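hey
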């Protein structure tokens, strides 16, 4: 089993995601144990101190599925913004995997089908913190 790369998340994202998880019924929250584990192990920074090459909430990120070599560009959103083309929810396995990764980092993440996908961040076209959009 490979070790997970270090991740960094903003205090604001952490607070919002934790609030989202706390509002869920326990049965549903159990499904997101992986996300909670990621939050627990992350280095937490103030939004203004976030490195510009790290995936944060509402970032537009291009990543590669290292198994299929497919490249996808998505916006990492809260569940209320999911469903639109080009979005992935933080509660989706891919969304949970991408949060906090820097460009060039990769992570193996379990999928609902039991397989693990290996994802690598290739580019971040937009990051709210880097753009000064701290109150999104």
């Amino acid at each position: 089993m490979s070790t997970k790369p270090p991740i960094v998340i903003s205090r604001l994202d952490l607070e919002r995601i934790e609030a989202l998880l706390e509002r869920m019924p326990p049965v549903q929250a159990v499904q997101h144990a992986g996300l909670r584990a990621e939050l627990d192990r992350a280095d937490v920074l103030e939004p203004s101190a976030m490195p510009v090459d790290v995936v944060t909430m509402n970032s537009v990120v291009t990543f590669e599925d290292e198994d299929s070599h497919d490249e996808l560009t998505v916006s990492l959103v809260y569940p209320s913004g999911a469903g639109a083309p080009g979005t992935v929810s933080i509660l989706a396995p891919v969304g949970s995997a991408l949060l906090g990764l820097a460009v060039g980092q990769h992570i193996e993440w379990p999928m609902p089908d039991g397989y693990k996908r290996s994802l690598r961040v290739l580019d971040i076209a937009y990051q709210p913190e880097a753009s000064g959009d701290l109150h999104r």
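The beta strands are 8-10, 43-45, 60-65, 70-77, 87-89, 106-110, 116-126. The radius of gyration is 14 Å.
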